[in-house]
């Protein structure tokens, strides 16, 4: 899981990044609205699984950024962070397109649970077990089964399957997929990506991953 954290409190942000890293969650941290991606977006601007967005920032209100992103068609899951428990703030955020709210101070376990919940909804899955036809995927356990048989996948192959399974039936551009597999570094070389796709096809069936020439790959629903 790779998230974007927009939070101005230095101590809180640093502690949160450390806690997330300990749980295997990578993150990028911005401290101002001005540092957040803004329309028109480049392909690499929003390659995150989720955004943690503080309401109160030094150069504006996180709710304004939420509104701009939603108006621009950004569907990325967004969890608002606030030190305020006012019902009006939460209703404004939820009506404006926030997927959830979490109130400071919070436990890392609660945040992780909320992250998993919004990602399940984003992937149109109702539980921790993702079902795509005869494929059953358990993201937390890094495990996958096909027709009941456990698949012997390398970490990279499982990561690839998970990214494609987030939106079955939707074409994931090659560039986006290559960057998602290396969220904190250089995007994966396309030739390597093709090798991993080929290996995954051999294990789950070639017909389950469709190549859209010149665009990317799609997991058949």
UniProtKB/TrEMBL annotation:
Keywords: DNA-binding, Phosphoprotein, Transcription, Transcription regulation, Two-component regulatory system. Pfam families: Response_reg, Trans_reg_C. Gene3D superfamilies: 3.40.50.2300, 6.10.250.690, Winged helix-like DNA-binding domain superfamily/Winged helix DNA-binding domain. The modification 4-aspartylphosphate is found at residue 54. The keyword Transcription regulation applies. SMART domains: REC, Trans_reg_C. This is Response regulator transcription factor. Residues 127-221 form the OmpR/PhoB-type domain. Residues 127-221 bind DNA. Residues 2-119 form the Response regulatory domain.
